[in-house]
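[agent] plan:
  1. take the single chain provided in the ticket
  2. run structure prediction with default settings
  3. attach structure tokens to the ticket
  4. add a short note for the reviewer (M.T.)
[agent] executing step 1
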Amino acid sequence: MERNLELPGKRAIRYISGRAKPWSLIIVLIAFAVCFLFTAASVTPTRYEINEGDIAKATITAPRDTVDRVTTSELQEKAKAAVKPIYKQDKQSSEDIIAGIQQFYVNSKTIRAFCEAKYVAEMLRTANMTNWSAASFDPEDVKWKKEILTQDVLAELRGKLDMEFTDDEVALIASMKETALNNLEKDIVAMAQTELDIGIKEENLSEQVLRLTSQVMSTAAYTDTQRNLAVKSLALLKPNMVFDANATETEKDLAAANVLPAVYKKGQNIVQIGEAVTGAQIEVLRDLGLKQDNTLNFSLYLGVFIYLLLCFTLFGIYTAVFMREIMRGIKNVVLISIILIVASGISIPLNKLEPRIITAFLGTTLTCILVSPKAAVSVTVLLAFITGFTSASADGIISERMLLTILCAVPGGLTAVFFLRRAHHRTEYIYSGFAAGLVNFIVLAMVALIKGSGFEGMLSDLLWAMINGIGSAILAIGALPVLESVFRVATATKLLEILNPNQPLLKRLSLETPGTYHHSMITANLAEAAAEELGLNTLLVKASAYYHDIGKLKKPYYFRENQQGRDNPHDLMEPQKSAHVLREHVTYGKYLASRHKLPKDVAELIEQHHGTTVMQYFYCKAKERLEVSAEDYRYKGPKPQIKEAAVIMLADCVEAAVRASGLVKKEKIREIIEKLIKERGEDGQFEECDITQRDLARTANAFISVYQGMFHERIQYPGVENDAENHN
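[agent] step 2 finished; step 3 output follows
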């Protein structure tokens, strides 16, 4: 079987794109581009048109710590120049030098032996054998140049040598005794070895040779002949210390690295008004982006772009994986994008007024109320990192202010989400803001403890922390009516508002279709109990159940619960036309919801409450006459897209079935409920929402609990028949 070797990154992109509609990605990209522009604008510093040699018209201070590269480079070059060259001993050179000196004495011994042999031969040839003996030979007494070292002898001798010796040097060596020559060789080799062990550099060679020569000349034990020969052999000394370029360069680099950089601290004057501007100062201004020129700080904007791209990418992955319902609806994507843009945009001017203002809380509050608490968590983190950049522009991008903003925004925002997750009244928004502000202050106090800076300024920090939290809540309350109206968002306050029985549609429903109104109330009770059990949005479920059948206002008497003893008009209609009337109550209900500006989520649940189920009564009626397809008698859908829609569908059909059956026993009702749930599941009505079998079982139990409360046992009164049929 061939394995899928698709790269993880490509697989992740395909995974996200499969859950995100094209327009969702486009909207998010627009939000990303706008946030990037805001962030880039906030981190772009004020630039000055100034050049080297100009007289500064204003004092320019460093917005953050920065290194004076020019001055630091000069200091490093001075440190490098102070490093002396490093040499290392060349052992081979030392051995060659000693060998050369030894070879000098080998040649000297050859000269002495050759001259002695020539002298002996000459004596044997000319002297009386009885008057001369070798034992009486003293080389110092021989007149070598006159008697022995003729040109022919010298020529023969030089043929045996591998070094150049003058006639005087040959005569000098010939006049030495063998023991004296050996002792001299030993001394000179030892002296040379000692000097080589110390090390001889090129520049010190003359000085060291001169010192050794002085030492030899001052040695009383040496004869003049030995001194002269020693000086000649010492002339063979050479440098054995080689320049080590790598070690020297390493030492220079180390010296440069140990130089403390010249730093302009945050707030320190770089250029003083009235001063001539130096080249080093110009480079500092350019590094800080304060120099006005024709080039953009590409690395700055590239870094901001990559930073925001990473944040948005992680946000998109989280949303695609854990909040797929947000990716399905353009409303939520647009809302989140607007919230991100607004919170990022207003942070720039507000942070210039006071860097401690954190606009991320506003984004968190609006997202939690208008979208969902789960979405608010991810938006909180994303806005924390975006506003961290915008708030830190005055102090330098990567600064303490940026870190403080992130540290305050994340825990403060998560606290607001916790308090807002079930907020039904606007006063609860204020409480959440107060809690977020308190956590904000605790974080600031914690940072003060860690820094050891004490609690100076804590009162002002507390004030700004509360302004951040409570102010964000107040701004959110002010913005909610507009956003609720424009986007038809099902906020808790909006849902409570439309649950009021005096709402026009509910009032019409109670007056014009009393049976449907009663059915809707019971359906709402059932659905609310199930939603509570499953942890769903109970207000959305209850409100949608109240309004799910408002489409019956168009033709109320075509529905059984509103006929109240009247003739059933469907008895005189073709089954196909009857099916059309039933379908129409769904489409007309959605139309009324839109016309009366009900939340869009409520309108969608109205549209989904029948899914694509078959109208069994009319389908069976049609089958009695001719062969028909069940598809012709289905609602048009769509099928339930979320659990809330599935719960309303089940509550609707269960209420109608139990009411029609007239049963009151718990066991019989359970059978009906389980049968209906099974039929809807087998019909594929739950294929497009993530409701599970366990959820369906819990829903059935919640329905049973409601009916158990409705059909409880009654007290037996004396004299009254306790017939169960009389109490149905």
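[agent] step 4 note for reviewer: Residues 1-19, 719-728 have pLDDT under 50 and may be disordered.
[agent] ticket updated
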